[in-house]
Amino acid sequence: MIDKGSLLDILDQADTVLLATVSGSAPRMRAMVNLRRKDLFPGPSACARDAGFDVYFCTSAASGKIRELRANPAAAAYFALPHLGRGVMLSGVAEILESPDLKRALWDDSWRRYWPDGPSDSDCVVVRLAAETATGWSGTETFHLDLRSL
Known about the structure:
Helix content: 10-25%
Largest sheet: 7 strands, antiparallel
CATH architecture: Roll
Strand content: 35-45%
CATH superfamily: Electron Transport, Fmn-binding Protein, Chain A
Number of strands: 7
CATH topology: Pnp Oxidase, Chain A
Radius of gyration: 15 Å
CATH class: Mainly Beta
């Protein structure tokens, strides 16, 4: 059985992160940046890692994913390290946050191309996925965990 530390390692190191939402009755997936990667996002990663199994994404308030989450907050994020034979899907409920302090804590200056006014840009919002379950694989082992009991 995978332990909590190994599970967090997958989240912290994943090259690929996909966010799944629901549009009507159909799932929708899109690639997102992994804010937990301290090698890529040294500033935001501290805040993102402190969240444990909750996952943060910054995105546009006008995006389809925000419209979908407002209609149905059920969501999942898939973190993959395929070259190591490891991956995990976190499922739970997403919340759209506009806290200026949180946006500053998660901000990366390379995003000014999207939000010229920086973290105070009204189009910049934070999605927090409050993970309830983790399902995945590590090597030849598969697992399903209730994160609320860890």
